[in-house]
């Protein structure tokens, strides 16, 4: 148990020091000793995610969930794992899996408002249940629909639409959102169904980040703009109008000197490019480790730790012969540090 705790503590320290490759090694060593600890899988999943290895992260969460289900005392961490899987699946547009895990988490904790918001987003995408992916209802095609009264307003990020119909129940409402259209079906009165249908929105939206709320006097719909800061001249528009509307809002500045925003944007893009390169390197080393056999993994851990991070070898035949020497950069002097190995 002491070795597991040491590996765990070092993994946490490395994680918060942004050394995610090293954290991955420590959490893996802890799991190799205790593969029934759901918290270890959760922490390694966070680490995989930081290394842009989302599929590995979700796989670890599912392993942690299985471990938690085998232990009735782990209900709290079981809930955390379910919510995290649901959030990541929603981000990756794996809507069916997201709905499955978030709905299961809702059974454990019915009072979580953040969970309600996530489920509301999925409902806005039509995911009412696993068996009814589209959320659509059978309709008589001969029915005539009444268009409800509505209005809209906008800010930098959202188009907000208020549909004024009172006392609508969840089971009587079907909201379909696509990148450029919106359909709202209301069927609480079978003889007088209502429909708001907008086939061509003035701008593009992001369905997975759009959602709606049911209020006693209205339905509030929030559509996330695909281009934040773009002003819509109206709610609907054809191709020509959409093109003419493609102008961003310009906000006033109190500065007496004009800023070269294009140059600033290029500088930010350059910095992001460097970060992406570093992230790719981290992902490469993590993949090498995850695909390696036991001897290669031992060689990587032993060489990295004993050399104080100055060497990384995959050759156990060489590394296993003795301690790995510190190899500092030219002109620098090595100093001894304590390790847990």
UniProtKB/TrEMBL annotation:
<feature type="region of interest" description="Disordered">
    <location>
        <begin position="315"/>
        <end position="341"/>
    </location>
</feature>
<protein>
    <recommendedName>
        <fullName>SGS domain-containing protein</fullName>
    </recommendedName>
</protein>
<dbReference type="GO" id="GO:0051087">
    <property type="term" value="F:protein-folding chaperone binding"/>
</dbReference>
<dbReference type="InterPro" id="IPR007052">
    <property type="entry name" value="CS_dom"/>
</dbReference>
<dbReference type="Pfam" id="PF04969">
    <property type="entry name" value="CS"/>
</dbReference>
<feature type="compositionally biased region" description="Basic and acidic residues">
    <location>
        <begin position="332"/>
        <end position="341"/>
    </location>
</feature>
<dbReference type="Pfam" id="PF05002">
    <property type="entry name" value="SGS"/>
</dbReference>
<feature type="domain" description="SGS">
    <location>
        <begin position="250"/>
        <end position="339"/>
    </location>
</feature>
<dbReference type="InterPro" id="IPR044563">
    <property type="entry name" value="Sgt1-like"/>
</dbReference>
<keyword id="KW-0802">TPR repeat</keyword>
<dbReference type="InterPro" id="IPR011990">
    <property type="entry name" value="TPR-like_helical_dom_sf"/>
</dbReference>
<dbReference type="InterPro" id="IPR007699">
    <property type="entry name" value="SGS_dom"/>
</dbReference>
<feature type="domain" description="CS">
    <location>
        <begin position="145"/>
        <end position="236"/>
    </location>
</feature>
<comment type="similarity">
    <text>Belongs to the SGT1 family.</text>
</comment>
<feature type="repeat" description="TPR">
    <location>
        <begin position="4"/>
        <end position="37"/>
    </location>
</feature>
<dbReference type="InterPro" id="IPR008978">
    <property type="entry name" value="HSP20-like_chaperone"/>
</dbReference>
<dbReference type="InterPro" id="IPR019734">
    <property type="entry name" value="TPR_rpt"/>
</dbReference>
